[in-house]
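Hi V.,

You were right to ask for the full record rather than a summary. Here it is.
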Amino acid sequence: MEHKLYYKDPYTKTFSSKVSYQKQDESGRWYAVLSETAFYPTGGGQPHDTGTIDGIEVIDVEEVDGEIRHYIEKPFEEVGDSVTGVIDWERRFDHMQQHAGQHILSAAFDSVLGFETISFHLGKETLTIDLAIEDLSEEQASAAEALANSIILENRPIETKWTTDSELHQYPMRKMPKVAGDIRLVIIPDFDYNGCGGTHPSSTGQVGAIKILDWERQKKKVRVQFVCGNRVLTQLDHKQKVLLTMTKLLNAPEQDMEKAAFRVLEHNKFLEKSLEDARDALLQFEAKELIQDCQSDGKVRFVTKVMVNRSMQELQKLAKSTVGLADDSIAILVSESDGRLQIVAARGSQVNVSMKAIMGEALPLINGKGGGNDVMAQGGGEAIISGDTLLQKVVKNLIS
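Predicted structure:
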């Protein structure tokens, strides 16, 4: 562990080292291996550090077969006796805050409710823990969050200690590590003892705050989304800007925002219902016009029309309305839209012709698929023929 400076002092921002060698990996990416490094490699749920080595960007850091590979933007032209590494401190400290915050919140859930954390993910904007439970209430989440923030306010020390798996019985471990041999413990005295290889601040107070944002059930676990430290301020700033925008749009003060939003939603539902009723009325009017213009062989009236950019739902409603007004009719409606054809066939109650059979003859003409029954059938396919041609062929088959 001597070459891992981030374990000696996670607050190291710059350091000097030597380039042991540089080469390309199997995918052609250049990387450098240093004699010692403060760059943290991806691991244990924590993302890698970024920064520079002698001014060259470090874009990824991985530990492979015991060596830490610094993937660099370009290879070093010359490797001198010493190079200077600079850590992107804002990114590193953010990860330190989030990782320590995760320990605190997981320990709070365990301490207050006995809920075990089974996995953890640190993302760019938020982080999540998966709890081994099937449901989480508002009261339970609030209790865990309150305890977590009280631990932060107490500014307890965060200690690290190397031990072995045979010595773990000396500590009240929240969760037993899966690794053997040398094990690094992260300890918040009288609160949390956990095996972890990540970087953490020296005290809980530096985590700043913890805020649970949301949670959802996933199979037999609950995923909790939250933020810590400076991310709490970022979230607050974003939400405050959204809230201020909404107060202006809804013309309501912050405390009445929920009621104002509900009023808008209810009004929209009313408008949508009114619009739907108007559309249905127009379809009824259109159906009457189609019946007036239809042809008849003396027994059955054929209502046919080719339209443009009509939805399948509209075609079905229009066909149903048409045969409802004239029970001795068959309605065949086609819509052309974006290189595709849609077709609906419906019959009135006095007609004894299978619309499913008619559709079975029509769809192969357009490489189409569809379904339905003897009363109404529908489908769609490619516009390899015109809508008029399709309609003519279907009517011809009907008459024959």
